[in-house]
Structure formats: structure tokens, C-alpha cells
Amino acid sequence: MIWSLQAAPDLTDKQFAQWSKLLEDRAGICLSDQQRVFLQTQVTMRMRELGQTDYSQYYNRVVDGVSGMIEWAVLIDRLVVKETSFFRHRPSIDFVRGYLQNQINNKTLKGSFDIWSVGCSSGEEPYTLSMVLNDCFSLAQLDPYYGVIATDISRAALGIARSGVYPQRKVEMLEPHVRQRYFKQLENGRYQIDPELKQRVCFNHANVLNINEMPGIDQNVIFCQNLLIYFRRWLRHEIMNAFVDHLKPGGVLVVGLGEVVDWSHPDMVRAPVDDVQAYIRKAAV
Ligand SMILES: C[S@@+](CC[C@H](N)C(=O)[O-])C[C@H]1O[C@@H](n2cnc3c(N)ncnc32)[C@H](O)[C@@H]1O
Known about the structure:
By secondary structure, this protein is of the alpha/beta class. The protein has helices at 13-27, 36-50, 55-62, 65-79, 90-105, 124-139, 155-163, 168-171, 176-182, 195-198, 233-244, and strands at residues 113-118, 146-152, 165-166, 183-185, 191-193, 201-205, 219-224, 247-255, 268-270, 277-281. It is built from eleven helices and ten strands.
């Protein structure tokens, strides 16, 4: 019987440790022992596609030079959780809306308003932020002057994000006026994001572990939700520290509620909001 029809052999403890270490070293993602079946399923599915039968041989293939990097790009997409939705955490989105609205009202907005969505998955989060910023500028009858940078480690997720086309189930929970304003229904029933909104969002492949190597402009808002939870506590803190260096004075860092505990930074103060975990960078003195 060929291997593809047989049950996959179980990962040994040693093999599980080896694969987990690779995932953590390269992507920061720390698997618990309960996720062994998940890891095994994803790895064996990929091995089947390649006609490979031996975990160790496949491991060597993944870590071998340039071709290994290409294989890694395929595998990592299978190992990350990409769940997301439009307006996923409303209080955090409303916090960003209020933050920009205040700057518009107080006339303290200087230059363009820049947001970075870190771990943007298939694009729902950065497009949501783009809708909110667009709303704020049009309410104030100002020309929209903003940009959204959206990064993720999964090339497949970025492909969906760049297409800006979503199935009906992804948009049906949106308020009808939002759907009408920012989406067009295609003949095949899918929904396409408004082109003007789309051109405001720049998608890039990036691993947040390499944050210190990321060039680019400082941000008014860094929005990072449902990503740091997969990392060890010390790594969450390191990345939070690095985020601070990418913020403009007065800029805000918004993370998922409860995703980072016991973190503080001399340049940051916690925003006094109950259901949002946000930190404001102190203005330069
Ligand atoms: C659960 S999704 C969250 C999506 C969105 N932020 C939200 O809250 O709805 C987590 C995303 O983080 C990405 N990710 C995981 N590890 C990463 C890393 N080391 N660097 C960049 N992105 C990563 C995954 O590919 C995935 O798209």
C-alpha cells in the first residue's frame, strides 16, 4: 500500500521537539504539547503532497539552503492561525477612530496619518482601519491623508489580502451602510473592496521577529492583535519594546486585550480605557 493511503506515523517526542523549535526559532510561535496533533497533521499533509514519507528527511529538506526557504514559505502558511474578520475587536477599532477624530478636531494632526497592521492575515484588519480613517477624514470634509502598512509572515494570506476580494460570509455581518460604501458585489457573488480604500493599504511580507531590521516611517498607530499570544512572554515584551521605536511621539500602540501582561516602558503610558489595551508614546520634550 502506498504511504499516502496509510495513517501517518506519530511524531516521536524528539521529532516534535525538533519541529517545534524550528517554528519558534523562525516565527516566534510556541506550540504547546496539545498542539502536537495539529503540527503532525499539517506537516504530514505537506509531506504527502511532495510524496515524502520520512519526517527527518523532510525536515532536512526544509532547512536546506534556498530551496529549503521556498519550502518553508509553503509550510509556515499551514502552521499559522490566520483567523480574522472585519471589525474584529470593535472597542479597539473605535479607540483608533476616536484618536484620529481628536487630532482632527484639535487641529493637531501633522502630515499624513500612518497605521501599521502587524500580522494582518488576509487583510480584513487593515481594510477595517482604512475604512475608519476614511470615515474620519470625510466626516471632517478633509482630503484623506493617510496610509496603512500591513505585514504578515504568510504569503498565501497576503495574496488574498492584495486581491481584496472576499466571500459573502465575510461581509454579511457588516452594517449594510458599510457594505454598500466600501464593497462592490461581483457577478460571482463575492465582494470586492473599494479600489480607493485598497490603494491606501500597502501589503508586505515581513516576519515580526525581524522588526529591528524594518526600515520605514514612524507610525501614528501600530495595531497588533491576535499575534503576540502565540509568543513566549519575554518575546512579547521584546517586540513591544521594538514597536515603541517605530512610533511617532504621541503615537499609540494597540494590542489585543490581555495579550501582553506586566509590560511597561519609560516612553509609554497606558491609555485609560477599560476594554482596550493601548499605550501612548509620550510626546518628545
Ligand atoms: C490570528 S491572525 C490575526 C489577524 C489579525 N491581526 C486579527 O486580529 O484579526 C495571526 C496572523 O499573524 C501572522 N503571523 C504569525 N507569526 C508571525 C510572524 N512571526 N511575523 C508576522 N506575522 C506572523 C499569521 O500569519 C496570521 O496571519
